[in-house]
């Protein structure tokens, strides 16, 4: 299960990591509210994170993109630039 981690890399992004809580929607699982969203580009999909802090609030979404740390390692993180992809038939 993925989760939005509170760790900030040098560029100020919040990393997407494993170790999220499995369960129903609620304040205990708010850190792992992700969904796949369709786009118009050549790559047809992106992953977004729901920034809502309560079930009755209006939800805002943030793209999940790629960031590079000071050692050159790539990480999934909340970003203004989405990491876009497409599904291919196996």
From TrEMBL:
Signal peptide (from-to): none
UniProt xrefs under InterPro entries: Kunitz_inhibitor_STI-like_sf, Prot_inh_Kunz-lg
GO molecular function, one term: endopeptidase inhibitor activity
Species the sequence originates in: Glycine max
Identification of the protein by name: Uncharacterized protein
Parts forming coiled coils: none
One family name in Pfam for this protein: Kunitz_legume
């Amino acid at each position: 299960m993925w989760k939005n981690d509170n760790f900030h890399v040098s560029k100020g992004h919040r990393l997407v990591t494993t170790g999220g809580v499995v369960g129903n929607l609620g304040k205990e699982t708010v850190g792992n509210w992700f969904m796949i969203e369709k786009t118009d580009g050549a790559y047809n999909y992106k992953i977004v994170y729901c920034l809502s802090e309560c079930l009755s609030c209006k939800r805002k979404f943030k793209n999940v993109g790629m960031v590079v740390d000071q050692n050159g390692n790539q990480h999934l993180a909340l970003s203004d630039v989405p990491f876009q992809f497409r599904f291919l038939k196996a």
